[in-house]
Amino acid sequence: MRYYLNPQQELTNDENVMKLPESKITYKALGSLDDPQFVTFSTGFTKETEITSHIVAHLNVSVESSAEQQQSDPVVEADLDLFVTLWHLDSQGQEILYTGAVGDPVSLTKGWLRCSLRKVEDKHPQHRSYLPYRQYFSTDEELLTPNIIYAVDVEIWPTNVVMNGGDTLVLEIASGDTTGSGLFRHESKVDRDPAPLAGWNNIHLGGGKLNYLELPIIPQNS
């Protein structure tokens, strides 16, 4: 089932949000645990709902280079890192934490994408709408042009959770590690060269563009 992102930062089942006037939500690039940069979208559940299997987030994104980059090279090629997290809140708005690989408290699930490696092999027999198939070849790399909108699919780790009536699911989209990242963080300047990543990240809504979180909802009678 698809939950669509809207300008009110909600997740809704109404596909007509794509018909709204175009808008964008902006957050700073190169976030970190010490300086998290993110936006959130959420939906509440009125009855017990099971989510089990693979999840994907489809987003329309762009990058704005920093002022320093624009002055030195206005047509510089850029990149954009997406850090996606799903949080489970109870009916009182408190985070429900799960156990990570080393016993640490973590969120429901996470996913990542470096947008220069966004290419999807949609003709591959293993490709699914909910599980984009990628080869991650170095020849697949395609950097981003600032201020151009790109549609990307972010694979999110499969999970299993039962949302109770009154619970809330929060989709967090960040530009770096946030709470619940565990031991394995993305802090190396070799892996995350600030030059192509610095600036601002945008999520573009409306104007005919669909942004959604595809959730594997299990029917109650199954």
TrEMBL record:
Residues 1-214 form the Xaa-Pro dipeptidyl-peptidase C-terminal domain. It holds the Pfam family PepX_C. Gene3D superfamilies: Galactose-binding domain-like. Transmembrane segments: none annotated. Signal peptide: none annotated. GO terms for molecular function: dipeptidyl-peptidase activity. SMART domains: PepX_C. InterPro entries: Galactose-bd-like_sf, Xaa-Pro_dipept_C. This is Xaa-Pro dipeptidyl-peptidase C-terminal domain-containing protein. It comes from Trichoderma harzianum (Hypocrea lixii). The lineage of its organism: Eukaryota, Fungi, Dikarya, Ascomycota, Pezizomycotina.
